[in-house]
Design a protein that fits this description.
heterotrimer; A alpha+beta (256); B alpha+beta (233); C alpha+beta (259); B: 233 residues; alpha+beta; OB fold (Dihydrolipoamide Acetyltransferase, E2P); Ribosomal Protein S8, Chain: A, domain 1; 3 domains; 17 strands; 34% strand; C: alpha+beta; Ribosomal Protein S5, domain 2; four-stranded antiparallel sheet; elongated
Chain lengths: 256, 233, 259
């Protein structure tokens, strides 16, 4: 019996969007690493009003055993919408949508991780959306990549993601809820910025080839910006790790 | 001796993020968590760069314990099988202690039982004697100082901080032992066993958590000395 | 690790000491931030030491229970998300999650904290249902007390959403200026017992090693609105009566954080 604010008359007014942004402008993004002490790695992302926490546990023993792979880690990605993350309360438990998103995220993160260095183990990536205002799967991927790095898991690169689309006929970057609900197309994309390899691409709506090309370029450019934020978040946490005194005994002897 | 294709992009002690380009050129040698892809050398983990001559090494700053041959570890018995024990070594990989590696004495199961040597949930100090391709780990407790550890306090720290907790030539660990009269045993897998008077044991644990947290800061040794002297007040 | 360190923890407790230097009846540093969750009618982010819990209050319109046709209803749910603790698993709520939800529920429902009579829209047909969702972010012990105080803080800060009578729709995104009618502030204190010593606000290490726990919810007028014993150990009658007084004292201290 939901009610959301009805469709606005226009989504773009005088070249500006309803939240004041330019067409190719990202929402303000904040990323923080290491927010959940129990987890091996964790991260928080706030992108506009979207807010997602990610915890990584692993590599750890792979249970149930039938999921275990002899020559690599089993990557388990779970995307969840917490019940109070949406205007109408979301019933706890996975939905078909969250199961699909989990799978797509797993396919997106796998190429970046040296899974073969952790045979017979499991890496759990839990992405919990505590506030949903569009772009959740992309923000979840950004947080997951930071959490995986925070966990000290070997990776080829981080993975960065952002969605763009079409609203009122204009191509726009990083849509927020109104644009997502009432726009004409939506295209999330994820990549490994170092090699520009694209690891996630989805699209729904109606776009011609020129528009798709423009959107891909818009996404890639935005990903490079977000990549810097991911790296800063990690460096900020670990900057304090720099040893000033080199008093440590390196990897030999145990003092027993 | 630099050719035009050689480039170094980081300094000694820089923090690395996975995917960071560290250097270009075949003259450089990657070590630790640095790896080569074509002409370029990248970091694959959160780490700290250590540059010695042409060798670019990345020392990991995070990550669960990955067993290595020769490592001395603290483990907990989680299973007793026919001819050995399953041991949790705080790693994604469990370890096996075979009955033949448990003691220098011959264990005659007709006269005694496995549990008399190591029972469920017993802790031990052991050495990793071999690791297979798929990381099946074998332990030994045959020789000194490997043994069962009697009940005490066990704490977990990041394995990457263990060298700092031991200190150069064991200096930090000695500081802790002298200041508390406790027995302290350190596993390279991130577990530390402490035994002594309860308050002293708690003090050592507190000091170790401090070392873990502030391993980067100068003046740490003095801070630890003061903490041990004042009883942590 | 728990059974191994139990003798050590017990020895410390017998001397009135804890690993983090607290006394037997000391709570860890508590902080409560309300309004942290944008989509909720009311919310709280509780930090108790390293334990962190989010509590969201949401509301919806539904049919009343047949035996209370003009009263609103309450539903408390707890998700022990694997995010918060390496031992938690995905899936439907396990007994621990259900116990947590029901203990939080018991303290609130039975205390008359929420004035359900003010949550009726049309008797016998439409009443407000208050949903409380407890969501631990990091479990370092004592989720019960953190969740319970979070729930009250969230309720206290909650506004009722707009209800469009004509369209018979809840406007989830629009909140009125009307607050949820809260009459009481129950506060839960959980006591743990290990080898005879009783203490409060256990850390995860203490929780995994303890023998039993007793949670007591108290009100401002020094009465008790709920109790729950857990764990396989036991309490004596004398202990329980003694803990009644402790619970009232500690409840008063904790309640200050709600003002």
């Amino acid at each position: 019996m939901g009610g959301t604010v009805g469709k606005p008359e226009k989504l773009i007014v005088n070249g500006k969007r309803l939240d004041g942004r330019k067409l190719d402008e990202l929402r303000p993004i904040k990323i923080k690493a290491g927010i959940i002490p129990n987890a091996d790695g964790s991260a928080l992302i706030e992108q506009g009003e979207t807010r997602i926490m990610c915890a990584v546990y692993g590599p750890r023993e792979c249970l149930p055993k039938h999921l275990s792979e002899a020559d690599r880690a089993y990557l388990n990605c779970v995307y969840t919408m917490v019940s109070f993350s949406t205007p109408e309360r979301a019933r706890p438990g996975p939905s078909r949508r969250s199961v699909e998103i989990s799978k797509v995220i797993k396919d997106c993160l796998s190429p970046a991780i040296f899974l073969e260095r952790y045979p017979r183990t499991k890496i759990d990536v839990y992405m919990d959306v505590t506030n949903a205002n569009a772009g959740t799967r992309c923000a979840a991927i950004c947080a997951a990549a930071v959490a995986l790095a925070d966990a000290g898991i070997d990776m080829r690169d981080l993975v960065t993601a952002v969605a763009s689309g079409k609203a009122d006929g204009h191509l726009v970057l990083d849509m927020f809820e109104l644009e997502d609900n009432y726009g004409e197309a939506d295209m999330p994309l994820a990549m490994m910025p170092r090699t520009s390899e694209i690891t996630l691409l989805q699209m729904d709506g109606e776009l011609d080839k020129t528009e798709i090309k423009k959107l891909i370029e818009m996404n890639i450019k935005a990903c490079r910006e977000i990549y810097e934020l991911q790296k800063s978040a990690l460096r900020e946490k670990y900057e304090s790790e720099k040893n000033i005194e080199s008093e440590e005994g390196e990897q030999n002897g145990t003092g027993n | 001796m630099e050719t035009t294709t050689e480039k170094l992009y980081i300094k000694d002690r820089d923090i690395t993020v996975p995917g960071d380009l560290l250097a270009e050129g075949m003259e450089y040698l990657p070590a630790g968590k640095a790896y080569r892809d074509g002409e370029k050398i990248f970091a694959c983990t959160m780490g700290m760069a250590s540059i010695k001559g042409r060798v670019i090494k990345v020392i990991p700053l995070a990550g669960r314990y990955m067993p290595k041959k020769g490592d001395v570890v603290i483990g907990k018995v989680t299973g007793i099988a026919h001819s050995g024990w399953t041991v949790d070594i705080n790693s994604p990989y469990n370890a096996d202690l075979n009955i033949g590696e448990a003691s220098r004495d011959y264990i005659d199961l007709a006269k005694t039982s496995m549990a008399n040597y190591f029972d469920f949930n017993d802790y031990m100090l052991a050495e990793i004697i071999s690791i297979s391709e798929s990381k099946y780990v074998k332990l030994t407790t045959k020789y000194r100082p490997y043994r069962k550890l009697s009940p005490g306090n066990i704490i977990m720290v990041s394995p990457t901080k263990i060298p700092r907790i031991i200190g150069k030539a064991g200096s930090m660990i000695k500081l802790l032992k002298d200041g508390s009269d406790c027995d302290i045993v350190v596993g390279q897998n991130g577990l530390v066993w402490i035994k002594g008077l309860p308050e002293k044991t708690a003090l050592v644990a507190k000091a170790i958590k401090l070392i873990e947290k502030e391993s980067h800061k100068s003046g740490l040794t003095d801070k630890v000395k003061n903490m041990m002297a004042s009883g942590g007040k | 690790m728990e059974q191994e360190i139990k003798p050590y923890l017990s020895a410390l407790l017998q001397k009135g000491a804890r690993e983090d230097g607290r006394g037997l009846l000391d709570y860890r540093t508590l902080s409560i931030e309300t309004g942290a969750i944008a989509r909720a009618c009311g919310s709280a982010r509780v930090k108790l030491g390293e334990t962190e819990v989010l509590v969201g209050v949401k509301m919806d319109v539904s049919k009343p229970y047949p035996d209370s046709p003009d009263e609103g209803t309450l539903m408390v749910n707890a998700e022990l998300a694997p995010l918060a603790n390496p031992a938690f698993e995905s899936g439907p709520p396990k007994p621990d999650a259900i116990e947590l939800a029901r203990v939080v529920d018991r303290g609130i429902r039975e205390s008359g904290a929420i004035d359900f009579s003010k949550l009726c829209i049309t008797p016998k047909e439409k009443v407000w249902t208050v949903f409380i969702d407890v969501y631990p972010v990091n479990d370092n012990g004592n989720l019960f007390d953190a969740a319970a105080i979070g729930a009250i803080a969230a309720l206290k800060s909650a506004f009722i959403p707009k209800y469009d009578e004509k369209e018979e729709l809840v406007k989830y995104k629009e909140l009125t200026k009307e607050k949820l009618p809260i009459k009481q502030l129950p506060v839960l204190t959980t006591f743990a017992k290990m080898n005879g010593t009783i203490f409060v606000d256990m850390t995860k290490r203490e929780e995994d090693a303890n023998d039993a726990r007793l949670s007591i919810a108290t009100l401002e007028n020094e009465t008790v609105s709920a109790m729950q014993k857990g764990g396989i150990g036991t309490f004596t009658e004398a202990e329980i009566l003694g803990l009644y007084d402790r619970a009232v004292e500690l409840g008063k201290k904790l309640r200050k954080h709600l003002k």
